Amino acid sequence: MAHPLDNHPILRMNGAGNEILVLDLRGIGHVLAPEEARAIAATPGLRFDQLMALHDPLEADDDAYMRIYNVDGSLSGACGNGTRCVAYALAREGKERLSLATAAGRIETRREAETLFTVDMGRPRLHWREIPLAREADTRAVALDPPVDGAPAQFSAVGMGNPHAVFFVDDAEAIALEELGSKLEHHPLFPERANISFAQIVARDDILLRVWERGTGATKACGSAACATLVAAARSGFTDRRARVRLPGGDLHIEWRADDHVMMTGPVEFEFETRLTSELFEGAEA
């Protein structure tokens, strides 16, 4: 029997280097199981940082309901770079502005230029329970307890749909990201794991950033991490409320507006479109 997604199109894109797949499931009624997401990720050429699955909207004012998968099959609450890729994909239908619902809330997007999009990432979550952390803390400066060898002694915590831990360092390039990221993601302070960022303040409007994403690993870019980092930096007085955030895959421009919404502007790149096959899912195991 053919799989429901046999011969179904899927788009390969990137947002500032963040490897993204867009899978439009509107009108189908199929929800990807974690093992199906992992099977897609294991397909040559389709390895992703995030897979953006679009479903029929639950509210009349929305354009789609969006589920976001990490490469390990787990769900993510937000992905700014992936959302820009979705905005580009749906712009082909003539939609310059979008309202996309997610488990973490509604996301609005608008097209600025052919391949440049702005995403309203919403309000940051700053209370320790909302992020969440495992214990009460001033989220501007949380002691890393128990400590981790090689990691700074404290971090700033911000929720941007996902939990984020931002470590401010003198030299982001000198950090052993693979080693520290995997340890810190699973630190007992983070009951839902966390995205781990190492941020170097270059100027009050310029941040250098490297990110380890929960469920994915080291990544060339992470939009929600860029937003969380700007919020953390502004709260600590390191920057103003608008800055360029430089990641290995490209630059993002982040603004924490006076209305508390965080706006992210950045590029997208279309790579190719292909089709899924039933054979791709034959070895998928829960």
Task: Give structural notes.
- The chain is mainly β.
- It has two domains: 9-122 and 268-281, Diaminopimelate Epimerase, Chain A, domain 1; 142-260, Diaminopimelate Epimerase, Chain A, domain 1 (Roll).
- It is 15% helix and 38% strand.
- The chain has four helices and 18 strands.
- The chain has helices at residues 34-41, 80-91, 177-185, 223-235, and strands spanning 9-15, 18-24, 50-55, 64-70, 75-76, 97-102, 105-113, 116-120, 142-143, 154-159, 163-168, 195-203, 206-213, 217-219, 242-247, 250-256, 262-267, 269-275.
- The chain has an 18-stranded mixed β-sheet that branches.
- The longest helix has 13 residues, at 223-235.
Task: Summarize it.
By secondary structure, this protein is mainly β.
